[in-house]
Specification:
Elements (H helix, E strand, L loop, with lengths): L4 E3 L8 E7 L5 H8 L4 E2 L3 E10 L2 E15 L6 E16 L4 H4 L2 H10 L2 E4 L3 E3 L1 H11 L29 H19 L1
Parallel strand pairs: 6-7
Antiparallel strand pairs: 1-8, 2-4, 3-5, 4-5, 5-6
Bound molecules: zinc ion (ZN) (2 copies).
């Protein structure tokens, strides 16, 4: 059985449950991010989905979890962190007649407007939809710890390790600059 594929004939009135384990490197956007060192994955993606049919729409509700390695946005140190998220995707079968009236780009845009993903034939490939969810779940400003002190803007030393000599003067200098700015505008 191919990974991340659901067969529509198996999704009827009864809910279909499936578990997948996917190497994140097989997903093209994530593979590119790993290559650019934007993030790394220490564990495969564990994905569980439940699929059911509502009229002509296929609803896929799921959960994924993995472990990522990413750089802290304050101290720039790499750290490992678990990452997990729930998701819900709605798939619609592409209507062949529509292709004659609209071009493929237009259809894709129209379906995106209402949050639908589309598929052809009898197989729903979850790869693209799930990859999008994983990318969206990546932290925008990752922090190794909520109270990470970051790097000193002057000497660059990691303030989590030790207080550097220039830290306090750096802060008071910044305030002094602000004060001067205010005075100048008067
Ligand atoms: Zn940090
Ligand atoms: Zn310093």
């Amino acid at each position: 059985m191919k990974n991340l594929i659901l067969h529509t004939e198996q999704i009827k009135d009864k809910e279909l449950s499936r578990n997948f384990e996917e190497d994140p490197r097989t997903l093209p956007i994530i593979a590119a991010m790993i290559k650019n060192q934007a993030c790394n994955f220490c564990k495969p993606l564990k994905i569980s989905v439940k699929a059911f049919k509502i009229r002509e729409l296929f609803e896929v509700e799921g959960h994924f979890e993995t472990h990522i390695r990413i750089s802290c946005s304050r101290c720039l140190k790499d750290f490992d962190t678990p990452m997990a998220s729930d998701f819900a995707l709605t798939y619609a079968r592409e209507v062949p007649g529509l292709m004659d009236v609209l071009d493929e780009k237009e259809i894709e845009l129209k379906l995106e407007d209402v949050g639908l993903l589309y598929f052809r034939g009898e197989e729903i490939n979850l790869q693209q939809g799930i990859e999008e969810q994983v990318v969206m779940a990546l932290p925008v400003r990752p922090l190794c710890a909520q109270n990470c002190k970051g790097l000193c803007p002057h000497c660059g030393s990691d303030l989590n390790q030790k207080e550097c000599a220039c830290e306090h003067t750096a802060r008071s200098n910044q305030f002094a600059v602000l004060k001067n700015l205010k005075l100048d505008t008067k």
